[in-house]
Amino acid sequence: MNFRTVDAGRGVGWVGDGWNLVKGQFGAWILLVIVYLVIEIVLQIIPFVGGIVAALISPGLVAGMFLAARYSDESKTVDLNLLFQPLMEQRTRGPLLTLGAMAIVFSILIALVLMAMLGGAVGLSEDASSADAEAMLMSGMMGIGFGGMVLMLLLVAVYSMAMWFAAPLVLFAGVAPIEAMKISFKAVLANWLPALVFGLLVIVLGVVASIPLLLGWLLLMPVLFAAMYVSYKEVFDVPAEDSVVMEQPGMASSVMKM
């Protein structure tokens, strides 16, 4: 699937366009975010199984946010049913759950890196027997800590790039999950400058949103989800008729009964 490179300033423009998409139905968007957060938090509270389920369904819920952004873009009514529709649609449920499984694999990889770092530090401690053992241990741990931090930041960056456009590629273009991650990584890499600008702006806005007891995130998150949809639409230039998931008769009532 082809993609294009955009100017660095679009990193700011995506946020502005995201605001324009959600401001007309802000109440509905806030409801979507609240339900999304409640689901994630409740699942994380459940020991072991909850975290796995949260990781599995998270890409599906994110896809629901992208679908809501598509509806806003087409001047359609946004409602809570859109959050669950990608996971209820047979054509997209499996691929989106596969993306969730990849999130679990990534978490395991991070855990292995941490274990390797701790194992190295313990090994160094056991080998240290000279008068300078304590100094050697501290120096070694600092070196391991810096190297491990760089490695984990690199892993997080690669994974974030692979997931940025993965869910909408699966949802709207019907791309297979692994291929979607590859295309997403390449597209973000080609647009690293606007992505960097966007990321820095999100950090600044996130700090501001966190000041009033984190309540600002209820306003910021809808804008960010819509902004990511705008970035997808702009980088891939996907026409509306390419959407894979469409609202189906009876979907609203079936979701509300769950």
**Quaternary assembly:** single chain
Structural class: mainly alpha
Q: Specify the biggest β-sheet.
A: none
Work out the number of β strands: 0
**Which spans of ≥5 residues are poorly predicted at pLDDT below 50?**
246-258
Amount of beta strand: under 5%
What is the string of SSEs from the N terminus onward?
A: HHHHHHHHHHH
Radius of gyration over all CA atoms, rounded: 21 Å
Helix tally equals: 11
- Between the first and last Cα atoms, what is the distance in angstroms? 36 Å
| Overall 3D form | globular
Helix content percent band: over 70%
Number of domains: 1
Q: What is the residue-mean pLDDT, rounded to a whole number?
A: 84
List the SSEs and their pairings.
Layout: H1 10-22, H2 26-45, H3 49-73, H4 81-88, H5 90-127, H6 133-164, H7 166-173, H8 177-190, H9 192-210, H10 216-236, H11 251-256
Helix pairs in contact: 1-9, 1-10, 2-3, 2-10, 3-4, 3-5, 3-10, 5-6, 5-7, 6-8, 7-8, 9-10
Describe the protein in words:
With 258 residues, the protein is mainly alpha-helical. 79% of the residues lie in helices and 0% in strands. The protein contains eleven helices and no strands.
Quickly list its features:
mainly alpha; 258 residues
